[in-house]
Design brief:
The complex is a heterodimer of chains A (261) and B (197). Chain A contains no helices and 24 strands. Chain A is mainly beta. In chain A, the strands form six sheets. Chain A has a four-stranded antiparallel sheet, with no helix packed on it. Chain A has a four-stranded antiparallel sheet with strand order 2-3-4-5, with no helix packed on it. In chain A, strands 6-7-8-9 form a four-stranded antiparallel sheet, with no helix packed on it. The radius of gyration of chain A is 17 Å and the shape is globular. Chain B contains four helices and six strands, in the order αβαβββαβαβ. Chain B has one domain (23-182). The termini of chain B are far apart. Chain B is an alpha+beta fold and 197 residues long. The chains are: A mainly beta (261), B alpha+beta (197). Chains A and B meet through loops of A and loops of B.
Chain lengths: 261, 197
């Protein structure tokens, strides 16, 4: 499995999160705005945006400090879910069939809400470290087609699998400072995405990889294309398998696509 | 008029110098490491070797410079790159088999609710033994962002520093990172503002 770098989308300012909707439309969150890249639709958020996600019906969720703002596809504000305790700093958002998940980096947990914003349960909180180990300050996760939540636990050098109800099913990943199949440094991977395979990004040095669900390394997608000081590189993947990764220092999105053999 | 101003300027400089020397003599002005200049802690410097001039140039037998871990910034990680040599072989516990510090000056202990079955499931405290540390800077280089959190910096210990007029480390430091400043004016690494930070 090989990938090639096909495009760099340049931005400016603080680029913190990206997402791709079902039609392949790329969204970016940063500064205090959401940017639908391509059509160049952009609209402001009331607080700095730390994450973005697009639901199946096209509504756009922006994760912020203390709240989630929900917009229609044109950027009109539909709802604001405010909760200083449960939404301390929302660095990731995802969806299961009937719920909305929010990664709260302030409390090192994933929150599960129903579609109306009613809190249901925590994910990744019920353990001896009282949450995910995120020295880098970002909770990130992705939900696969079966509704399984794949959460980065960088302090453990793992990606953990949870049910939406919060039950830990297992994990992949291990520390290794040399073997690329492992995760190096103090705390990696920092960010994840999922389709048919699991994608991860790491810091110091920046690296993008693909794994199967058993933890077998499938590909090192990129290493040396990013600024060495990058960290918390948001990652997204579209239905064609194109992988989008944020260079947080250059404020750019690098696009990779699988090489057909 | 110009002559008067020049005379005043000279007198002011002399007075300032005299105040500085009195403060220095009283131990109120001390040498300090500017963490924003020191290449071991300066953000943005990655992939370079740690500088150990603080160890080799100090006139005190065991340098007056020490690595100090600021606990409020420490991530208490299982795999600390300042404690472990993270490129050494992985042992049966899933950890690097070698330590980084050449003087074994850093101690590691699990804290909080300890899971004895899974080392990755714990927080760890990293304590620097100042009787062993000689300020070589290796741990500082590995602790800084993005690899670590930058909780470890080099500091000059006033009780060990003999406060030379011309500090030999400052003369050797290529970054001009040693400064004479009032005691208590601790210099912290600059917070680098980056996109996405």
């Amino acid at each position: 499995m090989e990938y090639r770098h096909v495009q760099t989308i340049w931005g400016k300012g603080a680029l913190r999160g990206i997402a791709v909707d079902g039609h392949g439309q790329l969204y970016a969150a940063g500064d205090s705005e959401i940017n639908a890249i391509g059509p160049n639709r952009r609209w402001p958020t009331s607080r700095p945006a730390h994450s973005v996600a697009v639901a199946g019906d096209g509504t756009v969720y922006a994760g912020e400090i203390g709240q989630i703002e929900i917009f229609d596809g044109a950027g009109k504000l539909l709802h604001t879910w405010r909760d200083a305790k449960l939404l301390g700093r929302v660095t990731a958002i995802g969806f299961t069939r009937d719920s909305v998940l929010a990664g709260d980096a302030a409390d090192r947990a994933i929150r599960r809400f129903d579609a109306a914003g009613k809190f249901l349960n925590n994910i990744g909180k019920d353990n001896s470290t009282n949450g995910l180990l995120i020295p880098n300050g970002v909770v990130d996760f992705a939900v696969d087609a079966h509704g399984i939540v794949h959460a980065a636990n960088p302090g453990k050098h793992r990606v953990e699998r949870y049910t939406p109800g919060g039950e830990l099913l297992g994990h992949i990943g291990r520390f290794d400072g040399v073997d690329p199949a492992g995760f190096t440094g103090c705390c990696n991977p920092t960010n994840v995405a999922v389709r048919e395979v699991l994608y991860t990004t790491e810091k110091a040095g920046p690296r993008v990889k693909a794994y199967d669900f058993s933890g077998k390394l499938l590909a090192v997608i990129a290493t040396d294309l990013f600024d060495a000081n990058c960290k918390n590189m948001s990652i997204a993947v579209d239905s064609r398998g194109r992988v989008y990764v944020v260079d947080t220092v250059k404020a750019a999105i690098l696009v990779f696509e699988p090489v057909k053999s | 008029m110009n002559e008067e101003l020049t005379r005043r300027t000279v007198l002011a400089v002399l007075a300032g110098g005299a105040v500085f020397l009195v403060k220095k003599a009283n131990g109120q002005i001390v040498w300090q490491v500017d963490a924003a200049r020191c290449i071991n802690s300066r953000l943005g410097e990655v992939g370079v070797e740690a500088c150990n001039l603080c160890t080799t140039e100090c006139v005190v037998a065991l340098s007056a410079v020490r690595a100090v871990n600021e606990y409020s910034k420490c991530g208490r990680c299982n795999i600390c790159p300042a404690y472990f040599n993270i490129t050494s072989a992985v042992n049966e516990l899933g950890q690097p088999s070698e330590k980084l510090c050449p003087r074994d000056a850093i101690a590691r202990k699990p804290i909080g609710k300890v899971d004895p079955e899974d080392p990755a499931n714990n927080f760890y405290e990293y304590i620097i033994d100042e009787e062993k540390c000689d300020g070589c800077g290796k741990c500082v280089m590995k602790c800084k962002e993005p690899l670590g959190l930058g909780s470890i910096t080099l500091r000059i210990r006033y009780d060990k520093c003999v406060n030379c007029n011309r500090c030999s480390i400052s003369r050797a430091c290529p970054q001009n990172a040693l400064l004479q400043l009032p005691i208590g004016q601790v210099i912290r690494p600059a917070e680098v503002q980056r996109p996405g930070a």
